[in-house]
Design brief:
Two copies of one chain form a homodimer.
Chain A lengths: L4 E5 L2 H13 L5 E5 L5 E3 L2 E3 L1 H11 L16 H8 L10 H15 L4 H12 L4 E4 L6 E6 L2 E4 H7 L6 E7 L8 H8 L5 E4 L4 H9 L4 H7 L4 E4 L2 E2 L2 E2 L4 H7 L6 H8 L5 E5 L6 H6 L3 E5 L6 H14 L3
Parallel strand pairs in A: 1-2, 1-9, 2-5, 9-10, 10-13, 13-14
Antiparallel strand pairs in A: 3-4, 6-7, 6-8, 11-12
GO molecular function (chains A, B): LPPG:FO 2-phospho-L-lactate transferase activity; magnesium ion binding
Pfam family, one (chains A, B): CofD
EC number (chains A, B): 2.7.8.28
């Protein structure tokens, strides 16, 4: 395996660009690395939201209306669990449950998360490689004015309501990056690393927090290109804008650039934010603008092409 | 709680009589004790086949055609799990899964199996008390000419094909009987113990193997009445007849009586086997015959009445 491109991604927003990239690049050329800081154990099942969103999106079976889960999903189990008085705050569809049952069972029997992801991806028909950032458990903890909350508590149960003061990644210090990622970062074939338009704190930072990732990114010759998840002062989806505000940051592609400036070489921002290009370039980061709001598959492919081009592909 | 009747039961056959008894007795008068020797962990879930069959049957939501699981069940999760290459030899319906998820989660959080069964029963609308024979894990192991097999391996995966040489109950020696059962056996209000028409080796024997159960049954004044699961040389359902044959026993209510004779005082056999009444009585066991094949609810209630009457109710 000799990947030319590595895409670091969180869930929905990142997965859209990952899908665009998958349409533009051969399976052997793209490695998609998923944030697993949101992973958690629920009802005895290992749930990996970003990995699954990436798998389902690249397999073409994700529920695009809902933004998560599977298309044409049914909810018989969750409804029955609700009647029994069980926990239903995290909605698991009947078919999605099969993914979690399969993965949890394989992990219990000693498989690594990479192996299981590969097995699931193959069966689902995903041709490109998706790997978790690490085989180890790393748990994103959101530090709020109401104390520390696990990511899912903050994100799903509390609907991002508490004010954020910071984020930490439990277990990151002892984690190793996924072997496939390590090899890809060492490979001379590498032509670029793409940071997908995902939440910088919740989706990108956990990957960067794995020992050796920042160091490797600082060493490689290939450019590191981010795509801003902030468009016109707002996040396309999720709590990114709210979190940036609460952390005293500029809610703009400039704020994103400032946050990522020690990691990235280049950034793609939305056309709507073109006026910020000079200020971003003043930070020493190459910048360009393109349509970054991805509704159709064409949007995703166009942005993927723009990013690849801007990376010198 | 002061129960007048205790019913010891396995799955389907036993549950039919338990339903009849539940229609004839007040909720405060009947304690149904389920065999849990068939329980096992599968896909990380605690599955309790006999407890569930009893709960679903008494709740009126069991699938009577299929003989197990829930009426109107759907199979979206199992089908998806099959596509993923997961284990589907033990069929779990979408709604049934909710029962296992709920129970497994509650057990992990420290609840006892009795507590969880009480919670599930309440929500499902079961008014009578159902308890497991023990809170501890006791696993029925079938000793066959192909070696030892776990119960589910023998019963579901191998479809009872291997020749049986014996049965043992792993963990029974250190198990305690369920506290509700212990108190009920000590209570002077007790008017009878009914051994439902379940497999003597696989469903009744595990309950009797819990330390103290045989001793308590030997001590109580109230009669112990069995209902033969063998009718006309055949079992209504399951491998009872095959097992009896393989163990060199007489496949008849007489064989059942011989097996249970140190435990029971009386037995109800089918009308079709009435000719065996004298031989059974010769063993020192009181015997009567009644229609024991339970198709309709009326059949179940009639047999329940016959058993209660024969016990001196």
């Amino acid at each position: 395996m000799s990947f030319k491109w590595i895409a670091l991604s969180g869930g929905v927003g990142g997965a859209k660009l990952a899908l665009g990239l998958a349409h533009e690049l051969d399976p052997g050329d793209l490695l998609v690395v998923a944030n697993t800081g949101d992973d958690f154990d629920h009802l005895g099942l290992r749930i990996c939201p970003d990995l699954d969103t990436l798998m389902y999106t690249l397999a073409g079976c994700s529920n695009s209306t809902q933004g998560w889960g599977l298309e044409g999903e049914t909810w018989a189990c969750m409804e029955a669990l609700g009647r029994l008085g069980g926990e239903t705050w995290f909605r698991l569809g009947d078919r999605d449950l099969a993914t979690h049952l399969y993965r949890s069972d394989r992990l219990r029997h000693g498989a690594t998360l990479s192996q299981v992801t590969h097995e699931l991806s193959s069966v689902l028909g995903v041709r490109h490689h998706i790997v978790p950032m690490s085989e180890a458990r790393v748990a994103t903890v959101v530090i709020t004015d109401e104390g520390e909350l696990s990511f899912q508590d903050y994100f799903v149960a509390r609907q991002c309501a508490p004010r954020v003061r910071g984020v930490r990644f439990e277990g990151a210090e002892n984690a190793h990056m996924c072997e496939t990622l390590r090899l890809a970062l060492e490979d001379d074939a590498l032509r670029g690393v793409i940071i997908c338009p995902s939440n910088p704190f919740l989706s990108v930072e956990p990957i960067l927090a794995i020992p050796g990732v920042r160091e490797a990114l600082a060493t490689i010759k290939a450019p590191i290109v981010a795509v801003s998840p902030i468009v016109g002062g707002q996040a396309i989806k999720g709590p990114t804008a709210k979190m940036m505000r609460e952390l005293g940051m500029d809610v703009s592609p400039l704020g994103v650039t400032e946050f990522l400036r020690t990691t990235i070489d280049r950034i793609v921002i939305d056309l709507a934010d073109s006026s910020l290009l000079p200020s971003i370039r003043n930070l020493g980061i190459e910048a360009t603008s393109a349509p970054t709001v991805m509704r159709s598959l064409d949007d995703k492919r166009s942005l993927a092409r723009a990013v690849l081009e801007f990376s010198g592909a």
